[in-house]
Amino acid sequence: MSERKQLKTKKIGNRDRTRLSPGQAQQQTESSQPAVTVSPDDFSSRLELMKTEIKQNPDVVFRRFKLGFANLEAAVVLIDGLTDKDLINEIMKSLMYGVAETPPDPQPAAMNIKDFIEEKILPASKIKAVSTVKEAAEEVFTGFSALLIEGMPEILILETPSWKSRGMEEPVTEALVRGPRLGFNETLSDNISLLRRAIASPQLTFVDYWIGKTAKKKLVVAYMDGIVDPEIVREVQTRLERIDIDHVPESGYIEQLIEDNYLSPFPQLQNTERADRVASALLEGRVAILLDGTPFALIVPVTFSMLLQSPEDYYERWFAGSLMRMLRFAVAFVSLFGPSIYISFVSYHPGLIPTKLALSIAGTREGVPYPSFIEALIMEVAIEILREAGLRLPKPVGQTVGLVGGLVIGEAAVRAGIVSPIMVIVVSITAISSFAIPQYGAGIALRILRFGAMFFAALLGLYGVTLFFLLICIHFVKLKSFGVPYASPAVPYRLSDWKDFILRMPILMMKRRPKMLHTKNEVRKG
Amino acid sequence: MDRRHSRMRPLIVALVLLLVTTGCWDLKEVEELRFTVGEGLDRAEEETPGDEWAAEGGGYKKRNLILFTQQLALPEFIAAAGKQNGGQQQKPYQNIVLTGDSTFQMASEPSLGHQGGTFGQHLKVLVIGEALARTVNLQQLLNEYFRSPTVRRSVLVFIARGRAKDTLETQEPGEIPSFRLVDIADNEKETTRLLPPMNLGKVNSKLAAESSFLLQSIASKAGIVKFIGAAVIKGKTKKLIGFLSEEELEGLNWLTGQGGGGAIKAVYEEQRQPAVYMIDKLNSHIHPRVEGNRISFDVGIEFEGRLIEDWAIPGNAFESKHLKKVEKAFHDEVRKRVDRSLNKIQHEYQADVAGFGNQLRIRYPEVWEKVKKDWDKEFSRARIKYTVTIQIRDFGTQGSKLKE
């Protein structure tokens, strides 16, 4: 196993010189052993060490200068584009001239130079001292600046990260009519501050993680201390610590690495761009996972009913919320079983269709060369292709594709006698239903299962559809998300949690947090 | 891990094979079916349709007792009927006529000459010709329908005055006669001259209980079918013994409080002008009474409704005296008609088709046990008293027709 892995790394290393060789990679993993200790005497050699550690990349800036208050050499190491230039200039100005205006202690070199600089000179808000070049290099790559000073054993790390980030906009995938028009962006610190602003409470706890072996990325686990079940937090943390991967480009990686069952079609973590959604999940006693570089936060544990919910259910009055909830359950059913029920009625149980409808279906199907299953399959695949094509193309082109495709499928296919008009209706209702599911991931899950249901319907009719439904149910009740049963509160049955399930009962009635999450503090409302 | 896979593989293969090899047994696409929507049964006369191929070895051993009409809906022409693609229109139905002695054999016979499989689950109506119903025990005639797993209990049963075959034809383009019959039977709330629909399930239970009952009778004249009165089936013989005219049926419906809507027309007083009463609500209560060996019934009939037409001048509806007069006229009319109907079922047909026996069974079960064997005879001897109350609740925006 390990041999193969090494070979792979080597291959990459050969192709790309900038990557670490396998030996170095191994060295890096053993972080407990300090690789190189900084020798206090030789400033230039330390700088050289730093250079080899960081590698000579065009975006790395090594700026050597002399301190203004003492005849000591110093250097700032930073990455161009990741740091706040104004702040660096300010810092350097104070290091180079600042002391001339306010004469320091007569013998600065005599006292601890580190304390002196930290206390009197540097205007940076957060300073950290590290003792190894390797540590310093790691910090530099995340936007911090390293300050090396002749004769000082530590390297000072200055908090200077600043980069261009997208403004906070309304999330496109989770648009609401009513609710905050604010979503996460790609900067972790922005997202964290957004959560802080939503929950102004010392109970809101963030725990830092660095994920990724080769390319590190910051990850934050957020939860409400005193509300959340510590068991869930511990479970999240163990799973996160178990992650052993070179690089995490997006939170989808995290999701797939820590989910309970990778064979299940159902998403076991919820992803969202909405800060309000995360905030209310935290206050319900759930745990959120935020990753740097993506606006998608993850929420655990997840139950299936959560995937059919929208924050708007709570913002609107409860009648509207409940109605939408019921509609979504119906929509989920249609999107899962629409075509399969049609197939089984048309191919196996024409006696179950009202007489006149049966006759009209038979009339429109006259001359269609395929059995209903093949017909449905053609249409479903066509719709999937259309959807995919429309999604990937630039917006105006995507619309054209949708229009042309819709026209071809809806009109021409029927005229040509390849499909019957009723099949077009069934397929389009099903497609619209699957788009009405608020969570994209849940919609995909149901779409995948739809094909299974269609296959069963084609083989065994309604009996097959029932079998398939039972299969899903068996999987469904077995599935858990971080210790919480996926089908709850239906299975296991908890009546008190049904207040927020198929119906969204008035907020007046939701006095306790969900029982299924075993929260430490159940009271939500007096 | 590998071992587990090797054990799972045969299982998975078996499961897939099981599904694939056993699946699709019952597959029958909807467009490949022959939908039977109506059937007619007549007594066979001289003609023997379906036997034209006898010389070439066609046909099977049978007696030609029944003339069987099977009505198939033709979906392709139903769909085309809306489009009107010029030329003459194809009828959306097809009647196959056969003779034989077994309804099941006759129903499956078209499989030799028509494409698609017979599909009887959408059978809607069954029409029995007058001649056949008079001569054949209905329980014998219909036993295949009661047994068949595909025929539903909701199939409506009619008796045709004349031939059933003719009632399954229509002149209306784009219309299926069977559906037309079903739709007309639905007009129960519109008129009291219509019998509440009788389906196979109800007929089955009536036949099994050996009680007399009514079936809606229909007749066809020049390709137009109309519902006219009712056919009386005698419980003892399970055969048709006669008909009630539309007016007699209406009288009976008033007596039993069945149906709603409809009207009472009475000609009154010296002016000999008609007045019409629109029935809004009709109620009737049958109270059986047993005194020694004598069984009698008290019936209370209550009408609520409005004066909808009054041709008399001035016919002042503001005057309660006038209204009373009109009410009296309606009252007399109802009595006259109910008397006639009662006389017909009690004395001419001697068949309790109005549910008197059922009320007796409910109130006096022990008496019913004694008389139920020959109830129709007993019924013909029972005394039936009834009272009629008619209320005019409303006369609209027309009071007097003369200015004072």
Automatic annotation (TrEMBL), chain A:
The keyword Transmembrane helix applies. The keyword Ligase does not apply. The chain crosses the membrane at residues 287-308, 329-348, 418-437, 449-477. Signal peptide: none annotated. Residues 21-36 have a biased composition (Polar residues). Keywords: Membrane, Transmembrane, Transmembrane helix. Residues 1-40 are annotated as: Disordered. It comes from the Bacteria. GO terms for biological process: spore germination. One of its GO terms (cellular component) is membrane. Belongs to the GerABKA family. This is Spore germination protein. It comes from Lihuaxuella thermophila.
From TrEMBL, chain B:
GO terms for cellular component: membrane. Its main location: membrane. Residues 229-396 form the Spore germination GerAC-like C-terminal domain. It is a lipid-anchor. Residues 26-218 form the Spore germination protein N-terminal domain. The keyword Iron does not apply. GO terms for biological process: spore germination. Keywords: Germination, Lipoprotein, Membrane, Palmitate, Signal. InterPro entries: GerAC_N (IPR057336), Spore_GerAC-like (IPR008844), Spore_GerAC-like_C (IPR046953), Spore_GerAC_C_sf (IPR038501). The keyword Chloroplast does not apply. It is found in: Membrane. Belongs to the GerABKC lipoprotein family. NCBIfam families: spore_ger_x_C. This is Spore germination protein. It comes from Lihuaxuella thermophila. The lineage of its organism: Bacteria, Bacillati, Bacillota, Bacilli, Bacillales.
